[in-house]
Amino acid sequence: MHEVDVPPAATKSAGSLRRVVSAHTEEFLLAGVIVALIAVGGFLSPVFLSQYNITSVARQVSFDVMPALGQLLAVLAAGIDLSIGAVIRLAQMVSILLVERVPLPVAFLLVMACGAAVGLVNGLLVVKGRLEPFIVTLGTWTILDGLSLLVTGGRGIAANVPDAFAYLGRGTVVGIPVPTLIAALVVIIMSVVIHRSSFGRQLFSVGSNDLAAHYAGIKVARVRVTVFMLASSLAALTGFIMAARTGAFQPTTISSGGAGTELATIAAVVVGGARLSGGRGTVIGALLGATLTGVLFSILVLAGIDPYVQSLILGLIILGALLLSASRRSKS
């Protein structure tokens, strides 16, 4: 038999590929599950793979991804932000109230300022008041939803939105929804911030061991406050674009105690492999987690599954992901 010489370049390339796959096993598994779900959806309903439904799912996933990235920031810092959904709803309300009264850029800046202000308050209460993020953001969630109900009187509000504003939520570019393009830009920016910047390195250090990070010269308090401000700002951006999509704000989900957005962001980051104790998680994982839940719920809606059952399934997904994460940690 003749020996076959394998070029060093080919060996090196194969080794690099194995390292990439090994380092991102969870992400590849998630991508595989998403592909399988899409196949199941197409089998169950021909409508699922229609252009209209694909566009709708892409748009909805965009609204899930942006706040999920905010939740990822909080989780990486060993915290959690339960006020993200309330900030989205507040931003929707403020957008509808402002868009007919002030120029669009001014309305956008004011909405983003509201989001950043909420994050600043959350962060200061956590680091200066030495309070648990869970308790602080739970309180903020309740206060903001109460404020939205107070301002609207519990009734829906609508606006005759300008075309430029409506385009942000309803428009497309070569068939791709504008919210999807905005979300893609946010994903790229957050990938750089979290995985390629000094702030990102500080964030992982704080989440892994805040005391060690402090002794290493990292300003832990500043990192945590920045995290909450960024998380709320991403939520405000989501609310602004959602208002552009609907042209209205309905507080009925508040009065019925809906907590879908809060749970959806947690589900996305946990399913994406983030560790709630901090210091572990990726942007691509959060993106895939949000995509998986978005595709799954699209299938459930087309199948006519009751919304209450959908909430049950979401809770089971979170518990399952947490149990899987705990199992991986115990094995390692």
Automatic annotation (TrEMBL):
<keyword id="KW-0812">Transmembrane</keyword>
<keyword id="KW-1133">Transmembrane helix</keyword>
<feature type="transmembrane region" description="Helical">
    <location>
        <begin position="104"/>
        <end position="127"/>
    </location>
</feature>
<feature type="transmembrane region" description="Helical">
    <location>
        <begin position="225"/>
        <end position="244"/>
    </location>
</feature>
<dbReference type="GO" id="GO:0005886">
    <property type="term" value="C:plasma membrane"/>
</dbReference>
<dbReference type="Pfam" id="PF02653">
    <property type="entry name" value="BPD_transp_2"/>
</dbReference>
<keyword id="KW-1003">Cell membrane</keyword>
<feature type="transmembrane region" description="Helical">
    <location>
        <begin position="69"/>
        <end position="92"/>
    </location>
</feature>
<feature type="transmembrane region" description="Helical">
    <location>
        <begin position="28"/>
        <end position="49"/>
    </location>
</feature>
<keyword id="KW-0472">Membrane</keyword>
<feature type="transmembrane region" description="Helical">
    <location>
        <begin position="174"/>
        <end position="194"/>
    </location>
</feature>
<feature type="transmembrane region" description="Helical">
    <location>
        <begin position="283"/>
        <end position="302"/>
    </location>
</feature>
<protein>
    <submittedName>
        <fullName>Sugar ABC transporter permease</fullName>
    </submittedName>
</protein>
<feature type="transmembrane region" description="Helical">
    <location>
        <begin position="256"/>
        <end position="276"/>
    </location>
</feature>
<feature type="transmembrane region" description="Helical">
    <location>
        <begin position="134"/>
        <end position="154"/>
    </location>
</feature>
<dbReference type="GO" id="GO:0022857">
    <property type="term" value="F:transmembrane transporter activity"/>
</dbReference>
<feature type="transmembrane region" description="Helical">
    <location>
        <begin position="308"/>
        <end position="326"/>
    </location>
</feature>
<dbReference type="InterPro" id="IPR001851">
    <property type="entry name" value="ABC_transp_permease"/>
</dbReference>
